[in-house]
Amino acid sequence: MQGAHNNIYKPAIMKIVDRHDEAPGVRTLKLEFQNPADHELFKQNYRTGMFGLYGVYGEGESTFCVASPETRKDYIECTFRQSGRVTSALASADIGDLITYRGPYGNRFPIENFYGKNLIFVSGGIALPPTRSVIWSCLDQREKFGKITIVYGARTVADLVYKHELEEWEKRDDVDLVLTVDPGGESPDWKHRVGFVPTVLEQAAPSPDNCIAVICGPPIMIKFTLISLKKLGFEESNVYTTLENRMKCGVGKCGRCNVGSVYVCKEGPVFTAAEVSKMPQADL
Amino acid sequence: MTTQEQYKKRVKELLSNGTVKMVIGYKAGTTADRRRPLFVRTPEEADKLVLDSACIANLSGYLVTEGLLSDEKRVGIFLRPDGIRSINILAAEAQLNADQIVILGFDIVGQEVTALSGEKATDFSELIGSIKEKAPEAPQNPQLEQLEKMTPKERFAFWQAEFSRCIKCYACRQACPMCYCRRCIVDSNQPQWVNTSSHTLGNFEWNIVRAFHLSGRCVGCGNCDRACPVNIPLRLINAKMAQEVLGAFDHFSGMSETQEPVLASFKKDDSETFIL
Amino acid sequence: MTRILLSDKLDNCVARWRKAGLTVIGPVKKETFSSYAAVEKAADVKKETFSSYAAVEKAADFNFEMVMPDRSIKELFFPQTEPMMGYTIKKQDIATEDFKPPAEKRVIFGARPCDASGLAIDDPLFGWDYKDNFWFQRRDETVIVTIACTKSDDFCMCTSLKLAPDSTKGSDVLLRPLQNGKGWQVEELTDRGREAFKEIADQLQDGSEPAAPTAVVAEKFDLDACISWLKNPENFDSTFWKEISMRCIGCGSCTFLCPTCHCFDFQDEGDTYSGIRRKNWDSCSFSLFTMHTSGHNPRSTQSARWRQRIMHKFNYFPGKFTANSCSGCGRCSRQCPVDMGITETLQEISTLKP
């Protein structure tokens, strides 16, 4: 999948057409391709789960998922937390500014394997974006799936991302949304649950029968969520997650992102929990 | 008994009576002239120790390995006078507690190894003082003399040619006991003070920044020079800076644990009127 | 009867190739200032040398005596710093300029077989799904003429990697030094090699002079035993890794001189409005190589980084690309400031229970 250019490391230019503050330090950007050839390639290749390298010339590039689903390819949405040099430059970019994008790289969620099944999405904090990409891919073809449950929590109410979409999902009667914040993170008018995500998941007690789980979150949340899912009877091969690692090239050449023999940029970022448990855990 | 045997005995004593948890020394290497750092933790392992005229590397850098000294146990280490000066500097810069170090001092003269008496850093202050006294009279390095004879333009051309080989591997930094920063200035990216590319500017930036950061701190052990994979005469530039610092501030690095670093102190009677 | 190239014809060959527009490159040794040494007189100063593959103008510039140049051939195909594109940020537009490697047809005369095999080992990596044209443009424009080794040193280990002092891997033409020292037997191996030697066909002659015996390089470790040990997932957490790498100082010399190591980093150099994005060498031995912005570092200890190096070279890379990511040149051990290197580690591993 060589890009429109002969230089595989040359990014596409994107214009910021919208930006939205999700939570303190967390921003979503909506991007449009400036070069039709780049856009064509994206439309041909992008599937939910793939990631990109977003950057600013002069600062560098940073890796995040593509937060928009494969059912909506006219634009790219990405969500990130301002934490280092590149994300700070992206955070200070305005609507109308140009940034760079390289991708889409990596593997995908095998969404057609989820047809006819129930889905449970479990996510925490800033890890909702990759899950959200899958959620919309499914909601955009709602009739193909069974029951859909979303369990999402953050440390505090302010830290919840995609707040408007959370409201939208809550209002839908074909989605069961379970929202929670960590104990101590609730606001006075908080109407939803209070408790850590794995605990709340066990309370929601989804049945493992004919069910696929998609979990994204910080390593500690994933660890305990997997334990909870196993308790509920889920098989590791029916649980999907995403891994992230420090990346530079995104195409398997710079030697940086491997966990054991698995290159997150080429054979990931989407993995089943079974595949992750086979990796050397000390390399994660 | 040779110095080597004398010290092997001492190491076994120190380990068996629990004075130290580990001794850092030398053992045989791949070829006859190579020596490898050895980390001895039991009296039996001490039999692998070698102490001869090929044991020239300054091992003090291992003492600032993250976590090594944090259990407050003591560590023994074989050091020549340059290594002992390194300990003083590391202690003065609050990187280690000199009380935790048991020094097994030795010096190499020609093919002979002589033991130095003393085991605490303070035991060697007279010795280091006498090295400082002799410093201006010591046989001048002929290359340093040649450098002195060059015009600034020639010297610039000389160093530009030498640095052109630099591949930014930072082996010089890793080998140097004085380069212990957890995040070196070249690793900073907000902003990127020093480029990582090896073009003329990038190479100059790196090598000159390092030489400056070592002014008044380099002990002349030569670890950097030996580590450099492209044979840049790094010791020469650091020796030049050491010479300048001695002349301008009468500062000889590594005299004691309380010696102030020359780049980090300002005295009212300094010849400049301001810190710059 | 074989094709022979006599060394006194080499000047003509170099001139012929240069006239045809090719840059001729070969192993070159230069003198430099030696390290500081408290010497009594100038005459005692030991001259330091450094060697690399560099451009030559005549036969006398070559140095075929040395076992191998200090620096490997990889930097001729994957330079330490490579400008990829320039950018200029304007009000509503970003103008970019594409950089390509300079178009330069080259013939490398006198590469060592271990260096040439290093290139062949890295080809599948640089072509894995996405083709890195910085590498391939240079590969396509370069002819590699290797000279079989008649001597080795204590650090050579090509035979342990199932290669040999006269291996043809990665080579376009193999030359075998003659017993009488007056030239080489010529074995043309690829179309590219044949093409380049057509240029100097009249400098070759038929002959029956025997070739000198190739260097004897003793096998230093049992590679198959090592690989089985590495492939066993239980050994990932073995205490062996800490023990073997205790003296490693994380200097990166081994990775930078290695003909097959290929890790890199991107750097934008310039000011707020314009600059160049470069691809620079990086090393898995560096402490911040895998550091996340969050502060989490999956490989935060030197032993984890050493383990990555060995596992990548002898377990992960061959798992994806068949060949081991090592050509046995021994530069890692030869150059290591603390006398470590791959040889010692694999020797130790081959003594461990699988």
Estimate what percentage of residues of chain B fall within beta strands: 5-15%
Major sheet characteristics of chain B: 5 strands, mixed
Q: Which fold name is given in CATH as the topology of the largest domain in chain A?
A: Rossmann fold
| Topology order of chain A in helix (H) and strand (E) letters | EEHEEEHEEHEHEEHEHEEEHEH
CATH homologous superfamily assignment of the largest domain in chain A: Nucleotide-binding domain of ferredoxin-NADP reductase (FNR) module
Mean pLDDT of chain B: 91
How far the N terminus sits from the C terminus of chain A, by CA atoms, comes to 28 Å
Strand order of the largest sheet of chain B: 2-1-3-4-5
The overall pLDDT average of chain A reads: 93
Class by SSE composition of chain A? alpha/beta
Q: Segments of chain B where pLDDT lies below 50 for 5+ residues?
A: none
Query: What topology, given as strand order, has the largest sheet of chain A?
Result: 10-9-8-7-11-12-15
> How many beta-strand runs of chain A?
15
Number of helices, counting only DSSP H or I runs of 4 residues or more of chain B: 9
Number of domains of chain B: 2
The tally of beta strands of chain B, per DSSP, is 5
Offer a quick outline of the entry:
The complex is a heterotrimer of chains A (284), B (276) and C (354). Chain A is of the alpha/beta class and 284 residues long.
Molecular structure report:
The complex is a heterotrimer of chains A (284), B (276) and C (354). Chain A is α/β, with parallel strands linked by helices and 284 residues long. Chain A has helices at 36-45, 85-91, 128-139, 163-171, 197-204, 219-231, 264-267, 273-278, and strands spanning 12-23, 26-33, 51-56, 60-65, 76-81, 98-105, 118-124, 148-154, 176-181, 193-194, 211-216, 239-242, 258-259, 262-263, 270-272. In chain A, strand 1 (12-23) and strand 2 form a beta hairpin. In chain B, strand 1 (22-28) and strand 2 form a beta hairpin. Chain B has 2 domains: 3-132, no CATH class; 142-261, no CATH class. With 276 residues, chain B is an alpha/beta fold. Chain B is globular. Chain C has 354 residues and is an alpha+beta fold. Chain C has one domain (2-350). Chain C is built from 10 helices and 12 strands. In chain C, strands 3-2-6-7-8-9-1-10 form an 8-stranded mixed sheet. Chain C is globular. Mean pLDDT of chain C is 92; it is low at 36-43.
